[in-house]
Design a protein that fits this description.
The protein is of the alpha/beta class and 181 residues long. It contains three helices and nine strands, in the order E-H-E-H-E-E-E-H-E-E-E-E. It is globular, with a radius of gyration of 16 Å. It binds guanosine-5'-monophosphate.
């Protein structure tokens, strides 16, 4: 399902998923999620900042009552081997007893998600599921089932649709392969 489309010809990166393809997949996920959460009033949690476009499109594609909240964690690349993750912004809502869906941009090593799952589970929600637009090879190390996945990808570094390289490229209207040349 990878495509290089002419409408991205002005962007010097190879497109993996264009905006149209993403929106169509997001709509499918939205209907599946709406079906699973019928009558439950779940809380959708956006993982800032990368999850922002996926979250925005996904929540609009879920035609049932839901509530929105935001969380942010920071991984320390300098101490990657120790896997330090710190909470930068916690949820504002009380989620004890609620049905919670974490909405992530990408699961790579799964370290950030593992941290967030454990943090949210400590607040005793009724249920906790995860939606991730992209799931990288090896992400299974998170040790928690990711119920909703847009696409499985390889180990390549991707940018756009919320994903950055050094703070840039988040606003590209699709997912692209990052390359230096
Ligand atoms: P983790 O390795 O903990 O699963 O990934 C943590 C974070 O690293 C992700 O939420 C994302 O912000 C960033 N990340 C991982 N892989 C990529 C990638 O291919 N591209 C970009 N832009 N960020 C990534």
């Amino acid at each position: 399902m990878r495509n290089n489309t002419s409408n991205f010809s002005n962007i010097p990166f190879q497109a993996l998923f264009n905006e149209e393809t993403i929106l169509s997949r997001v709509k499918e996920l939205g209907l599946q999620i709406a079906n699973d959460y019928q009558g439950k009033n779940p809380v959708f949690v956006c993982v800032l900042r990368g999850g922002v476009y996926f979250f925005s499109d996904l929540t609009k594609a879920v035609p049932i009552p839901i509530e929105l909240d935001f969380i942010q964690a920071k991984s320390y690349t300098g101490t990657e081997s120790s896997g330090n993750v710190e909470l930068i912004k916690d949820l504002d809502s009380e989620i004890t007893g609620r049905d919670v869906l974490i909405v992530e941009d990408i699961v790579d090593t799964g370290r950030t998600l593992k941290f967030l799952i454990s943090h949210i589970l400590s607040k005793k929600p009724n249920s906790l599921e995860v939606a991730s637009l992209l799931f990288k090879e090896g992400g299974e190390a998170v040790g928690y089932p990711i119920k909703y996945i847009g696409w499985n990808i390889g180990k390549e570094f991707v940018i756009g649709y919320g994903l950055d390289y050094d703070g840039k490229f988040r606003n590209l209207p699709g997912v692209f392969l990052y390359s230096e040349d």
